Each structure stands twice: as C-alpha cells, then as structure tokens.
C-alpha cells in the first residue's frame, strides 16, 4: 500500500484548497478511505470518510465546509476545503481501510 498526499498550501482564512491522495498497491475501490489531520501539539483526528458505496461522514468541525470524494478510475481521494479557518491548520493525511495504521507523508495546510 502507498498513499501520497498533495495539495497543501498556505492560504488566508476564508480561502479554499483541494487536497488529493493518490493510492496504489491495492484494489482501491474495495476499501473505505478517510482524511485525518494533526495540528501542532494535538492528537491526530478524523476529518472525513467515504465508503465504497460513496456514503460520507464528517467531523462536526468541518461539516458544511469540507467535501470528501473519490475517483475510483484514478485511484484518487479528494478533500475540497472551503471557508478555511485558522483552526484548520494541520498536516493532513489520508488513510485506507486496506492498511489500518499506515500513514503517508501528509500535506501541510496553513491558514492565516
């Protein structure tokens, strides 16, 4: 299993970003996927998840602002983040049910 996150950047509050996660090494469409984040000096927390049937769930803190989606043809997971807040600043990681506990390198999102 390999997960490679990208799309992180520094943005101003109120701005938008789209994160991507390229997956390889397993049958992508067979497993649920999720986004997590870890802010400085805080524990990693779940942000959003998407199941194989496209059903989604979100942390209360991002509901209505973030949208998770997946493209099974491209083996890619996305996280559209709108109305960003300073408290969204964190390293964002994707995760797969194919390998619980495996983490990619993450992508830094900084909101100022």
What this model shows, in words?
The protein is mainly beta and 112 residues long. The protein has strands spanning 2-6, 10-11, 17-24, 33-38, 45-50, 56-58, 66-71, 76-81, 90-96, 107-111. It has a six-stranded mixed sheet with strand order 2-10-9-4-5-6, with no helix packed on it. It has a four-stranded antiparallel sheet with strand order 1-3-8-7, with no helix packed on it. A hairpin with a 4-residue loop joins strand 7 and strand 8. It is 0% helix and 48% strand.
Question: Low-confidence parts lasting 5 or more residues at pLDDT below 50?
Answer: none
Terminal CA distance reads: 34 Å
Structural shape: globular
% residues in beta strands: over 45%
Q: Write down the overall mean pLDDT.
A: 96
| SSE-based structural type | mainly beta
- What's the total helix number? 0
Compressed to H and E, one letter per element, the order equals EEEEEEEEEE
Sequence-ordered SSE layout with sheet pairings:
Blueprint: E1 2-6, E2 10-11, E3 17-24, E4 33-38, E5 45-50, E6 56-58, E7 66-71, E8 76-81, E9 90-96, E10 107-111
Parallel strand pairs: 2-10
Antiparallel strand pairs: 1-3, 3-8, 4-5, 4-9, 5-6, 7-8, 9-10
Concise overview:
The chain is mainly beta. 0% of the residues lie in helices and 48% in strands.
Identify the notable features of this structure and list them briefly.
six-stranded mixed β-sheet, globular, 48% strand, 112 residues, four-stranded antiparallel β-sheet, mainly beta, 0% helix
């Amino acid at each position: 299993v390999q997960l490679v996150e990208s799309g992180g950047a520094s943005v101003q509050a109120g701005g938008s970003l789209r994160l991507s996660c390229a997956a390889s090494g397993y049958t992508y469409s067979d497993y649920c996927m999720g986004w997590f984040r870890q802010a400085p000096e805080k524990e990693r927390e779940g942000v959003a998840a998407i199941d194989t049937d496209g059903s989604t769930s979100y942390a209360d803190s991002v509901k209505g602002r973030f949208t998770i989606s997946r493209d099974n043809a491209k083996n890619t997971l996305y996280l559209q983040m709108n109305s960003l807040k300073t408290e969204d600043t964190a390293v964002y990681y994707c995760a797969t049910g194919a390998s619980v506990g495996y983490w990619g390198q993450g992508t830094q999102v900084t909101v100022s």
